[in-house]
What we know:
Number of domains: 1
Largest sheet: 2 strands, antiparallel
CATH class: Mainly Alpha
Structural class: mainly alpha
CATH superfamily: Winged helix-like DNA-binding domain superfamily/Winged helix DNA-binding domain
Strand content: 5-15%
Shape: globular
Oligomer: single chain
Strand order of the largest sheet: 1-2
Distance between the termini: 23 Å
Number of strands: 2
CATH topology: Arc Repressor Mutant, subunit A
Amino acid sequence: MFNLDDCIACITSRSAKILADCFEKRLNFYNITRTQWIALYYVNINKMITQKQLADKMSLKEPSVVRLLDKMEALGWITRISSENDKRIKTLKLTDSGKKIEAEMLSVAEGFRNDVIRDISSQDIDIYNSVLSKMLDNIKDG
């Protein structure tokens, strides 16, 4: 008999929400949201990322990313550079302020990760990642 409390999708979703909320609280102390930091992170590591590519990486719809970037641009964290060939395509770049915040929040993220995986072996982390990947592969086309 099906039991929602034993459903792997529900357990995973509930766990992801708890983890995301806890990480959000840590970042809020620095007046930045989890979504803003994730965007800063991806813009930083992908030197020539477009708004569309960022939306794909963050699994967000483009209008949501545009609103997010509007706020981040107003805060002075990013700039948008229009493509010479197609003015609709915007490449993103961190400002010096954005680089500083991204670097500071990277240490917060690393601390959070270390707290989450404390007392869990690297072998168990590898197994978790492998099993989750297999589950996602199982439902990829469905």
